[in-house]
Design a protein that fits this description.
alpha+beta, Phosphatase 2c, domain 1
Length: 432
């Protein structure tokens, strides 16, 4: 398929074969050096920093391999039939004629989209049917800007192949002008960047794992059920002060999730002690007592009083603020009570709001949750602006793939906010 140039963009002279060959040699030499450094790295496979470094090496090698293939194409010219899986098979082109409504696709583009090369190319109006619904507005905006305002296309979207697989495609293009300067057609180059984006996500995820707050000391003795509870995907984090280091670090808050009674009901709790810095073993003692009361079937509205009775017989300070939530997966019923602690936040449909319902006569509230709802419990005397910021995160939290992703978003956004040091946050997403 022949490429086109707009009237005001004369063709540039291609580089000579000697200069391209020199670039190829430099790219291959650099790729060999990077591979050698990667192989010499002896980082522990279980170390988050080591995983992050290896992901960066892999991404760099991936990009250098692609660069080598691009330069080889410049030297050798287009191959008649690129082998499956090669870089050249992941780059295709298309031209849509606005006057005749005809389309011309390269064979590579048919392969990228998983379509039969013998089939008829889709028109510009039909092409969005291949694109994921949520990405269609972005594609429409790019095409409109190109055809109406003459802006170059440079953006990504996801396409669905006939076999159901999803691929990420990067499109670049420009309008092709006729002799009177009006747009006659649109010419584009499309590249399958799915593997590249997967490598970049690996780098991002391993980098984020380095920033994840370390688990609190009680985590190893009374493990938080990060595999979830019936009907819930769970995640939580504790943010000690930046100056709290070493074995004498103190922790003024706790979080937990455990069975409530003998069935599938779950108790979710987050709270803090009256003293801002409590010995590291304190939360473990409290969580142990809390789990015992929950297993005995103590309801959320009574847990505050029962814990106060138990703590009076210990050296621990009293609980200053806490929220206790009971969740029944069969009915999706949430009951909650808070003893001077922050009320839970409920995120649904991309919006967030405060308490799940008004306080009842027993001092607790009730609400029916829905699949996909996200409940957020937190400690700390956050300023109203920080709470409003939590609620403003609703669209991002709704797009989180799991509860752990949601916790990562919250802690990253609020790290350093007033009252958030020593704070705990717990996220529960309703899965069914």
């Amino acid at each position: 398929m022949s490429s086109h140039l707009s009237a005001d963009h004369p063709a540039a002279q291609p580089p000579g074969p000697g200069s391209v060959e020199a670039l190829i040699s430099q790219a291959r030499r650099l790729r060999g050096d990077v591979d050698a450094v990667r192989r010499d790295s002896q980082d522990d496979a279980t170390d988050p920093r080591g995983r992050w470094q290896r992901a960066l090496y892999d991404l760099a090698l991936h990009q250098l391999t692609d660069l080598d293939a691009h330069l080889a194409q410049l030297r050798d010219g287009p191959a008649p039939a690129p082998r499956a899986g090669s870089l050249l098979s992941r780059v295709g082109s298309a031209e849509w004629n606005l006057l005749t409504d005809e389309a011309e696709w390269s064979g590579e583009l048919f392969r990228i989209l998983g379509r039969d090369p013998a089939s008829v190319p889709l028109s510009l109006d039909e092409f969005p049917s291949l694109v994921l619904t949520e990405d269609r507005p972005k594609l429409t905006a790019m095409v409109t800007d190109c055809l109406v305002d003459g802006r170059p296309i440079d953006g990504e979207f996801r396409v669905v192949r006939p076999d159901g697989t999803v691929r990420t495609v990067h499109m670049m293009g420009e309008p092709v002008l006729d002799t009177d300067g009006s747009t006659a057609s649109m010419w584009t180059v499309l590249r399958d960047v799915s593997e590249l984006r997967r490598s970049q996500r690996a780098v991002s995820e391993t980098r984020d794992s380095l920033r994840r707050p370390p688990p609190p000391p009680w985590h190893g003795l009374l493990r938080f059920p990060e595999e979830g509870r019936p009907g819930l995907d769970l995640a939580a984090a504790h943010l000690p002060p930046a100056s709290a280091t070493g074995p004498r670090s103190r922790y003024g808050g706790w979080y937990d999730a455990c069975p409530l009674g003998t069935g599938d009901e779950t108790l979710l709790s987050v709270g803090e002690f009256g003293h801002p810095e409590t010995e590291a073993h304190g939360p473990g003692v409290l969580i142990g007592a809390l789990r015992g009361l929950a297993l005995a079937g103590t309801r959320p509205e009574r847990l505050g009083d029962r814990l106060a009775e138990l703590l009076r017989a210990t050296a621990l300070p009293p609980v200053r603020g806490a929220v206790y939530c009971g969740y029944r997966p069969d009915s999706r019923m949430l009951t909650w009570a808070h003893a001077a602690g922050p009320a839970p936040l409920l995120f649904r449909g991309g919006t967030g709001r405060g308490p799940a319902g008004p306080d009842g006569p027993s001092g607790q509230a009730e609400a029916i949750l829905e699949a996909g709802d996200l409940l957020l419990l937190h400690t700390g005397t956050l300023e109203p602006a920080a709470v409003e910021h939590l609620l403003a995160l609703a669209p991002r939290l709704a797009g989180a793939h799991c509860a752990q992703d949601a916790v990562r978003i919250v802690t990253r956004e609020l790290d350093g906010s007033p009252g958030f040091e020593h704070a705990c946050v717990l996220v529960a997403r309703v899965t069914r």
